[in-house]
Amino acid sequence: MSQISKAERSPSLRPDAPGKPADRSSQADQAYVQLKQLILDGTLPAGAQMLELEAAARLNMSRTPVREAMVRLRQEGIVEIRPRHGMRVLPISADDMRDIYEIMTALEGAAAEAVAQRGLSNRQISALQAPVRDMDKALEQEDLQAWAAADERFHLTLVELSGNQRLIQMVAQLWDQAHRARLLTLRLRPTPTDSNREHEAMVQAIIDGKPQEARAIHEEHRRRAGKMLVELLERLGLTQI
Asked: How far apart are alpha carbons 135 and 154 in whole angstroms?
């Protein structure tokens, strides 16, 4: 799973042992998860600044784990750290999104091919089919937020099934960077019925053991989605988000 989900599964803190290294690590994980969520859900938009002291007070923890969390976010390209100013959320441009989707297309396409080549157990197939069903249900209920969550779950599950840990980590970070643009434009895009059909075709190619077909479907799916998103950002004049 992505780094966020790993951190979320961390054991809860023990307040009676604040000095242990394990506690500091767990606090840093929690600070990382919470700060990242504030950025991904738009609470801290592009350009927003937050001092270490301010973040520590907001998260009700000391500055040391907050500082470690900010360093992790900087390493992922989500924020920059400025002396005496804490962290600043970095904006994403339409050109950034074009680059991000180009990389995601290649990486996720490779994952789709690898998964189809290797084959899946019935349990793994069910795990891949579940978010596709959830996407169909979300569209029936006209719940775009639920659709977007299921869409993200589908793509991350597909990548995880490749078993390539480096690829999983890279794609998770790219998804984090793309999340803000997807959230911002979610209700401005056409109803994603075509996307659902492409997901179904992709899963079928994987079940049928057709690696090249699975990759081709996925790459075309990603190219189309990326092109639509970038064109929408440019049409709205959103040079940075």
From this structure: 9
- 51 DSSP assignment: -
Within a 10 A sphere around the Cβ of 53, how many other Cβ atoms?
11
Q: Which fold has domain 3-89?
A: Arc Repressor Mutant, subunit A (1.10.10)
CATH code linked to domain 94-235: 1.20.120.530
**Burial of residue 46, with CB atoms counted within 10 A of its CB: 0-12 exposed, 13-18 middle, 19 or more buried:** middle
* Cβ count within 10 A of residue 52: 19
* Dihedral of the alpha carbons of 19, 9, 69, 42, in degrees to the nearest 10: -140
Q: List 49's β-bridge partners, or say none.
A: 88
Q: Say if residues 225 and 195 touch (Cβ distance below 8 Å).
A: yes
Model confidence over 181-239: pLDDT tens digits? 888 888 888 899 999 999 999 999 999 999 999 999 999 999 999 999 999 988 888 77
CB distance 241 to 94 below 8 Å: no
Q: pLDDT tens digit string along 81-90? A: 998 889 999 9
Neighbour-count burial of 120, counting CB atoms closer than 10 A to its CB (0-12 exposed, 13-18 middle, 19+ buried): middle
- pTM of the predicted model as reported, rounded to 2 decimal places: 0.80
How many whole angstroms separate alpha carbon 52 and alpha carbon 134?
39
Buried b (16+ CB within 10 A) or exposed e, 57-79: eebebebebbbbbbebbeebebb
CA dihedral 74, 76, 78, 80 (to 10 degrees): 20
Kindly list the domain boundaries of the chain, sorted by start residue.
3-89, 94-235
β-strands 86-89, 79-82 pairing:
antiparallel
